[in-house]
Design a protein that fits this description.
The chain is mainly β. The protein is built from no helices and 8 strands.
């Protein structure tokens, strides 16, 4: 597993970090409490070339991801990137879709 990127929260207490396995462009995001050292339970999957933008109060961040495998035809698995809101400490299944362009494959 390789570290692909990271973004600390504004106060530096939390760190969202992005990993890739075996040179893949399929990325996963995890969140760590920097002072206490453990990672939160959630793992955000189906990301590629993603970014992280924290909210000022550390409650969560915005990131982009692609459709869950099996939810679209195989030829669209790497298309239709969407912007989501992730609340720290919650499951990815609870993330809120913020923005998408369903007519544009990207």
């Amino acid at each position: 597993m390789a570290l692909w990127g990271w973004q600390p929260s504004r106060d530096g207490r939390l760190l969202a970090y992005i990993t890739a396995a075996s040179g893949s462009d399929q990325l996963e995001i995890r969140v760590r409490d920097v002072e206490k050292k453990p990672d939160y339970d959630e793992v955000l999957r189906w990301c590629r070339f993603t970014f992280i933008a924290w909210k000022d109060d550390n409650s969560g961040f915005f990131y982009n991801r692609y459709p869950e495998p099996g939810s679209v035809p195989p030829e669209d698995a790497q298309a239709y990137s969407r912007l989501y809101w992730h609340q720290v400490g919650t499951s990815q299944a609870d993330d809120t879709l913020i923005y998408e362009r369903p007519m544009q494959r990207n």
